[in-house]
Amino acid sequence: MKDTFYVTTPIYYVNDVPHIGHAYTTIAADVLARYKRLCGLKTFFLTGTDEHGQKIEKAARELGITPKELADGVVGRFKDLWRILEISNDDFIRTTEPRHERAVLELFNRIWKKGDIYLGEYEDWYCVPCESFWTEKELGEGRRCPECGRQVDRLREKSYFFRLSRYQEPLLRLLEENPNFVKPQSRYNEVLSFVKGGLKDLSISRMTSRWGIPLPNDPDCVLYVWFDALVNYLSGIGFPEEGYEKIWPADCHLIGKDILRFHAIYWPAFLMSAGLPVPRMVFAHGWWTVEGQKMSKSLGNVVDPYEMAERYGVDQFRYFLMREVSFGLDGDFSQRAIVNRINSELANDFGNLVSRTLAMVRRYLGGRIPSPSDGQLRQKALHTLEEYRKLMDDLSFQRALLAVWELIGSVNKYIDSTAPWSLYKEKRIRELKEALYNCLECLRFVALMVYPFMPRSAQRLWEMLGFRNGIEGETIDKSGTWGGLPEGQEVAEPTPLFPRMEV
């Protein structure tokens, strides 16, 4: 059985600062990476930046600086944001790094030797911001880019082509034999339909831009930015040097739905041509709107992840993004929605449960954990953990959180029905100890399960339960059995995990 897990985000363009879309994909990848580590897998999590292409060249020229200077500045912003958001990536790849260029040229040479690259001439409608060619049919009336809505330009130039048409049948077989290759189902259907519609050979070089990796056989051309960028998934794990095979193929490429074609069609075709295994899954999530409107600078409604983390808290922001919408669908962001979730689910349901349980243990039992007992909540906790694992493995983050909150609700109801305060008053100490142990042990389970989503809060709860080690070193196999709280361990004085917020 494979004991490694490799998850990636797309590498992000450096023509602008990070926004909520970047944060969403990267937080989701971080949740998945932390969960897989919790399962005991050797996990490698890669993110990075895409720094070549006409779009970067144009943005740098407008600022009066070099593309590399632009990239260096924006890369710093990305790295800073990932540190603030508690992103646990194992590496950060930049397409301007020598290790990346080596990997790109190696892949190009393998495909060239296979006979899958030839010289021709390309003419079509081109969108500079999206770095994408479009046919007349795809543009429709108005000749505007289907992705960004901007005006496109007619472009004709010498170009090297990849024989994508040669891989139509292999790609169809890949999709039909591996229905989980693309998720969710709607995206799989989209890719299958596109491939069945017929694939044309793909232009993989540009003469209009000088900011890129020159072709080894023709320095007048640079590699198309998407060919260059996709190879980051290999360069980030050391390809072509020995050892990369221990991690490749990627288990999950997490992407936005706008770049699905590149990852689910072009990328596996490049890999097939080069004789390399294809990734196991491409998961394309939806987009965020703001109070029903598309985000745009002109409307002034772009959500700044720095501001959200500072205003609401890092864990609160992470939780909201994973809880608000089923992963894979589009979501709508509003200040009212995030405040409601913080107050209702984090402060009231979760935070109050922690505070009332620890307060009773300190008041009635001198702050010491009683001896383990197989109480009423044992089966509920174990069942929740089993369900949680299934949902997390399926990337159903919202439903996994719902399962955890169902357990939190059950513990709150259990406290109301057992009334530990009455048991203490009536001196029914054995029943009191059993009731409070059940609550404490469920909180330990909850801490483990919310850790991938809210690492800081999970660690604080872990410490309040009396543990001195870091929760990040725990595994479900080791800690996912009932009775893990040591008898006599002292719990801490409770402090609010989630302060209430005002809209």
**CATH architectural label of the largest domain:** 3-Layer(aba) Sandwich
The share of residues in helices is 40-55%
What structural class should be given to the helix and strand makeup?
alpha/beta
Could you name the CATH topology of the largest domain?
Rossmann fold
How can the largest sheet be summarized?
7 strands, parallel
Per CATH, the superfamily of the largest domain is HUPs
Give a verbal description of the structure.
With about 500 residues, the protein is an alpha/beta fold. The protein folds into 2 domains: about 5-285, HUPs (Rossmann fold, 3-Layer(aba) Sandwich), CATH 3.40.50; about 335-480, Isoleucyl-tRNA Synthetase, Domain 1 (Orthogonal Bundle), CATH 1.10.730. About 50% of the residues lie in helices and about 15% in strands. The chain is built from 19 helices and 17 strands. It has helices at about 20-40, 55-65, 65-85, 100-115, 135-140, 170-175, 185-195, 225-230, 230-235, 260-275, 305-310, 315-325, 335-365, 380-395, 395-420, 420-425, 430-450, 455-465, 475-480; strands spanning about 5-10, 10-15, 40-50, 90-95, 115-125, 130-135, 155-160, 180-185, 200-205, 205, 215, 220-225, 250-255, 280-285, 290, 295, 330-335. The strands form 4 sheets. Strands 1, 2, 3, 4, 8, 13 and 14 form a 7-stranded parallel sheet that branches. The protein has a 4-stranded antiparallel sheet with strand order 6-5-7-9. Strands 10-12-11 form a 3-stranded antiparallel sheet. Strand 11 (about 215) and strand 12 form a beta hairpin. Helix 13 packs parallel to helix 15 (about 395-420) and helix 15 packs antiparallel against helix 17 (about 430-450). The radius of gyration is 26 Å and the shape is elongated. The two termini are about 50 Å apart. The model has no long low-confidence stretch (mean pLDDT about 95).
